[in-house]
C-alpha cells in the first residue's frame, strides 16, 4: 500500500520523450510521414504528462490550511486525471484526424531512411524508460498482477507512466509498420492507417486512465483485505469489544483517513477507554503508516448487550446510525 516511488520513472520518461519528440519532428520534416507527425505530437504530449505528474506531486506536499483541513494530497489525482483526459485525448484526436487526412489524400513518404532511423532510436529510448517504470513498480507491486497493480494502486504516477510507455512502444511499432508498408507498396494510405491505429491506441489508454484516476479523485477506501486487517487491529485491544462500523478513504496516496465506531465494555472508565483508543491507533499505524487521520468513536452496543446479533462492521450504515 506504499505510495512511494515513481519519481525516477517520471524523470526517465520525461528525458526520453523530450529527445524522442525532437528526433521525430526532424524525421517528419524530411519524410512528410503523418505517422511520424502523430508520434511526434504523442511524444510532446507525453512530455507534458510527466511535467504535470511532477507538478501534482509538488503541489500535494503543501501544508493543510483552514480551507483545506485535510491537505492537498488529492492534487496528485487531479493532475493524473488531467493527463488522461486532456493530453492523451488531444493526442488521440490529432492522430485520428491526421490519419483520416492521409487516407483521404495519401502522399508518398519521402526519405524513409530518416523515419526508420528515428523510429529504431525511439524504440530503444522508450524501452529504457519502460524498463525504469517496471523496476520502480516491482519495488511496490508485491504479488499483484500488472492489471491488479494498475487498478489498485493509490499513487497514480506509476500506473500512468507504465501505460504511457507501453502505449508509446506499441505506437512506435505501429508507426514503423505504417511507414514500412507505405514504402514497400508505394501507397501512402498505409501511413495514414498507421496513424489512425496510433490514435485508437491513445484513445484506449486515455479511457483506462480516466476511469481509474476518476475513481481515486472521487475517493477510494482501502481494499477489503486491508479493511479486515484494520478491524482485527482494533478488536485486538482489550478495551474494544468489537467494531460496529468503519469507513476509510484515501485523502492522497500517502494519507489514509480511518473513522470507526467501536463498542467498549460497559464497566470501563473513561480513562480505560482513552487508553484503549490510544492503543488501537498505535496498532493501526504500526500496520498502516499512511493512516494519518484516525477517528474512533466509542459507544455502548445495546444490541450486543441484549443478545441481538451484531451488525457487520463493513456493511452500509443505516440512516439512523
Automatic annotation (TrEMBL):
<feature type="transmembrane region" description="Helical">
    <location>
        <begin position="9"/>
        <end position="30"/>
    </location>
</feature>
<dbReference type="InterPro" id="IPR040177">
    <property type="entry name" value="SLC30A9"/>
</dbReference>
<protein>
    <submittedName>
        <fullName>Cation diffusion facilitator family transporter</fullName>
    </submittedName>
</protein>
<dbReference type="Pfam" id="PF01545">
    <property type="entry name" value="Cation_efflux"/>
</dbReference>
<keyword id="KW-0813">Transport</keyword>
<feature type="transmembrane region" description="Helical">
    <location>
        <begin position="189"/>
        <end position="211"/>
    </location>
</feature>
<feature type="transmembrane region" description="Helical">
    <location>
        <begin position="160"/>
        <end position="183"/>
    </location>
</feature>
<keyword id="KW-0812">Transmembrane</keyword>
<dbReference type="GO" id="GO:0006829">
    <property type="term" value="P:zinc ion transport"/>
</dbReference>
<keyword id="KW-1133">Transmembrane helix</keyword>
<dbReference type="Pfam" id="PF16916">
    <property type="entry name" value="ZT_dimer"/>
</dbReference>
<feature type="transmembrane region" description="Helical">
    <location>
        <begin position="77"/>
        <end position="97"/>
    </location>
</feature>
<dbReference type="InterPro" id="IPR027469">
    <property type="entry name" value="Cation_efflux_TMD_sf"/>
</dbReference>
<feature type="transmembrane region" description="Helical">
    <location>
        <begin position="113"/>
        <end position="134"/>
    </location>
</feature>
<feature type="domain" description="Cation efflux protein cytoplasmic">
    <location>
        <begin position="223"/>
        <end position="298"/>
    </location>
</feature>
<dbReference type="InterPro" id="IPR036837">
    <property type="entry name" value="Cation_efflux_CTD_sf"/>
</dbReference>
<dbReference type="InterPro" id="IPR027470">
    <property type="entry name" value="Cation_efflux_CTD"/>
</dbReference>
<dbReference type="GO" id="GO:0016020">
    <property type="term" value="C:membrane"/>
</dbReference>
<dbReference type="GO" id="GO:0008324">
    <property type="term" value="F:monoatomic cation transmembrane transporter activity"/>
</dbReference>
<keyword id="KW-0472">Membrane</keyword>
<dbReference type="InterPro" id="IPR002524">
    <property type="entry name" value="Cation_efflux"/>
</dbReference>
<dbReference type="InterPro" id="IPR058533">
    <property type="entry name" value="Cation_efflux_TM"/>
</dbReference>
<feature type="domain" description="Cation efflux protein transmembrane">
    <location>
        <begin position="11"/>
        <end position="217"/>
    </location>
</feature>
